[in-house]
Design a protein that fits this description.
- The chain is about 35% helix and about 15% strand.
- Helix 1 crosses helix 12.
- The mean pLDDT is about 95.
- It folds into two domains: about 130 residues, NAD(P)-binding Rossmann-like Domain (Rossmann fold, 3-Layer(aba) Sandwich), CATH 3.40.50; about 180 residues, NAD(P)-binding Rossmann-like Domain (Rossmann fold), CATH 3.40.50.
- The chain is built from twelve helices and twelve strands.
- It is α/β, with parallel strands linked by helices.
- Helix 4 links the parallel strand 4 and strand 5.
- The radius of gyration is 21 Å and the shape is globular.
Length: about 325
Amino acid sequence: MPTIAFLANLATAEHKRRWDLLNDHAADNVNVIIADPTSSPGELIEVLKDADVAVPWLASIPLDVAEQLPKLKLVQLLTAGYDSVDVVGLSKLGISVANNGGSNAISVSEHAITLMLSVYRRMMESWINTKDGNWRDGVDQLPVRTEINGKTVGIIGFGNIGRQVARRLSGFDCEVLYHDVVELMPGRDHELGAQAVDLDQLLRVSDVVTVHVPLNSSTCGMMGAREFGLMKKTAIFINTCRGPVHNEADLIKALQDGEITGTGLDVLEQEPTDPKNPLLSMPNAIVTPHWAGGTGEGNERAVVFALSNLERLVEDRKLLSVVDPASIF
């Protein structure tokens, strides 16, 4: 009987929901176990000794534990990002790492567009003003609100999530540009009404710049002073992938100096962030707590995908969405 291990502390409802989904969708011939990632290495080794697949949630498997688990062949993530695990180290132990196969792409793309609209329409300021009993007193003095209709949206990273953003923008009559170092699905840009351009051109002409890239050495800090300086002064910046993709100090300065108009962020360099982070009090910034992907539908797709990869492993078929260790640079 194959065994899949969920590595999570079930102290929060968010963790328990995924555990319940895993149990609900697992076939009768699959053994589903729970492992507390805060346990000692010895305790983890004992609990995971029969696991074929490990599914960490906001956790990782130390290499000194993994090397003591000869049955473990796959670390299956429920997220698109894989920066929380040592892909190269696990690969050397014969353990593959797979991400969620785009299971959260719809959820994150919807959140990205929500941030675009919220920044443009100054949603949080109007909500706070209304909640405080002021109705329109004060908000009519705000800078004029903006439509997304007809705007140029530049998507950096055109994988599962970036493509879903493009798909959802089609109803807004936007011009969609994208930049990606890899053409993952040749020809699909035309199908989605998007045009490939180089990064600098995208930054110069886009009204909205939204990033959807994995975090690695080539993307860490890729949006910094130079990049914000290339953007239109009227442009807004959206990040729903990983915080270190943007240089936070440079972003704050760009907002303060008027180099860009606003930002919508679901991720920050440090999470949880310092309550005194200037972004939390800036009128032209909206920040959500790394919250974009955790919809009920996205969670269910991720769990179903994880179980399908377990089935492929047992049947000795090719695993899906395996992260190439050579891409970690």
